[in-house]
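> forwarded from #structure-qc
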């Protein structure tokens, strides 16, 4: 602690009628030594992780569990499961070159979007996409780290869709795999099954299932680009159209020499047609719920399965074999 900071803190404690003592010896660790700023103040040689140039994980067992994944000792992403959240989600999702997230945790005009998220509106009269938790909430019940290697991390979660005071109506089981393929791109896979704990109806809605909200510099309204696997460009040309994948990309505003993007793949199942919900402000979602007036209904006990792949890349979509990565899991 610097001397000026010591007196500043001491003045605060003194004004409150409290006393504080500081052990300068605790701060005097020698070169190469680590110190633990706990009650003992003694150096602890093995405290913390080594700084390494590959993936590492941090998985604290708190009441609100989060799974932190680092690349080269910098946070790459975090799976967030706070009990007060509307739903679990991932943020950030760092670009492989810039070290800046390609997604945003909240932005106008719809600040409830949370980076990489999963939910739906108008589910048995509830809302598991936006608004307050009194309308519906997706609870994380069993976050588990399955495997962590230098280039791949696998984790699972079990979640329930529930309104306060009511029985849960859906239980979903998720398996995420983050695979750092190379320094130009990495893959995030989500395998998920939805078990209906009651008869479930999703009415016509533009808020549904897997979605990604990108940072401003990647979307057309912020100077970026939106393109589909068919070569269609922008919201007007892609909205409601089927496509294997949809991608945002653009020059990073903090370093315009770097171009990065994110692509979301549409699975051929469980829905026959893959209509896309797209917005120039930065949201994409492969979902059918807006394009079928009759809605969707599943009886209690039915299990709906889906597999979503997201690719974060440097350069433009043409620089990555997105079609090949789609065929890898869906063909």
């Amino acid at each position: 602690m610097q001397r000026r900071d010591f007196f500043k803190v001491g003045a605060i404690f003194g004004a409150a009628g409290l006393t504080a003592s500081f052990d300068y010896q605790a701060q005097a660790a020698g070169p190469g030594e680590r110190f633990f700023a706990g009650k003992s103040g003694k150096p602890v040689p093995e405290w913390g992780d080594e700084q390494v140039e590959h993936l590492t994980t941090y998985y604290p067992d708190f009441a609100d569990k989060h799974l932190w994944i680092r690349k080269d000792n910098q946070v790459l992403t975090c799976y967030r499961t706070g009990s007060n959240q509307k739903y679990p989600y991932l943020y950030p999702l760092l670009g492989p070159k810039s070290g800046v997230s390609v997604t945003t945790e909240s932005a106008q005009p719809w600040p409830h979007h949370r980076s990489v998220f999963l939910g739906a509106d108008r589910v048995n009269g509830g809302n598991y996409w936006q608004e307050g938790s009194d309308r519906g909430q997706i609870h994380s019940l069993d976050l588990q780290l399955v495997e962590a290697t230098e280039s791949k991390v696998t984790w699972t979660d079990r979640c329930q869709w529930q309104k306060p005071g009511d029985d849960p109506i859906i239980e979903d089981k998720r398996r995420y795999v983050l695979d750092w393929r190379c320094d130009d791109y990495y893959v995030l896979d989500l395998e998920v099954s939805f078990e209906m704990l009651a008869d479930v109806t999703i009415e016509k809605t533009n808020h549904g299932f897997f979605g990604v909200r990108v940072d401003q510099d990647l979307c057309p309204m912020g100077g970026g680009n939106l393109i589909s696997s068919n070569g269609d460009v922008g919201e007007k040309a892609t909205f409601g159209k089927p496509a294997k994948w949809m991608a945002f990309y653009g020059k990073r505003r903090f370093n315009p020499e770097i171009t990065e993007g994110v692509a979301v793949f549409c699975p051929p199942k469980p829905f026959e047609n893959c209509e896309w919900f797209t917005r120039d402000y930065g949201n994409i979602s492969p979902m059918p719920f807006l394009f079928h007036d009759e809605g969707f209904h599943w009886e209690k006990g039915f299990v709906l399965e889906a597999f979503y792949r997201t690719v974060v890349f440097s350069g433009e979509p043409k620089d990555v074999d997105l079609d090949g990565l789609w065929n890898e899991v869906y063909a």
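QC bot note: The CA atoms of residues 196 and 302 lie 5 Å apart. DSSP finds three helices and 20 strands in the chain.
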